[in-house]
Automatic annotation (TrEMBL):
InterPro entries: Syntaxin, T_SNARE_dom. GO terms for biological process: intracellular protein transport; vesicle docking; vesicle fusion. The chain crosses the membrane at residues 118-140. The keyword Secreted does not apply. Pfam families: SNARE. The lineage of its organism: Eukaryota, Metazoa, Ecdysozoa, Arthropoda, Chelicerata. The keyword Hydrolase does not apply. Residues 1-20 are annotated as: Disordered. It comes from Caerostris extrusa (Bark spider). GO terms for molecular function: SNAP receptor activity; SNARE binding. PROSITE patterns: T_SNARE. This is Syntaxin-12. Residues 45-107 form the T-SNARE coiled-coil homology domain.
């Protein structure tokens, strides 16, 4: 009997129970699924957070681009005024050049007429001087 006492008594824990293993496996599977779902939710929240950050960055970039376009429009408007003034000055200068050309033509014609008159006057004076010289010469020879 000593041998019988030395042997461990069999308990229900040492007995293999297939139903208990299936329950444990189901619990482990459920736990793994819950952890997987939690991990997926965390990853999804991380993706959403990153997406929100990118959207905010895009919005900020769009506001910056809008400001640049507004500044550019203001510069174009200012340059448009300057270009308009330059265009007016060029048009005015073109009219002034045309008027100056006409006045130079008139001045040239007046100079030609003045020279003709001066030549005629000099010619008349020479003729008068020659006539007087002839008269004086004839009077001096006849006396």
């Amino acid at each position: 009997m000593k041998q019988a006492m030395m042997q461990k008594p069999t308990t229900s824990k040492n007995i293999w129970n297939p139903d208990e293993d299936e329950e444990n496996q189901a619990l482990v599977d459920t736990e793994r699924m819950q952890q997987y779902q939690i991990q997926e939710e965390l990853e999804f929240e991380q993706v959403i957070f990153e997406r929100e950050q990118r959207i905010r960055q895009i919005e900020s970039d769009m506001l910056d681009v809008n400001k640049v376009f507004l500044d550019l429009a203001a510069m174009v408007r200012e340059q448009g005024d300057v270009i308009g003034t330059i265009e007016e000055n060029i048009t005015s200068a073109a009219y002034n050049v045309e008027g100056g050309t006409e006045q130079l033509i008139k001045a040239r014609n007046y100079q030609k007429a003045y020279r003709k008159k001066l030549c005629c006057l000099v010619l008349i004076l020479v003729v008068v001087a020659v006539v007087i010289a002839i008269i004086v010469a004839v009077s001096l020879n006849g006396s």
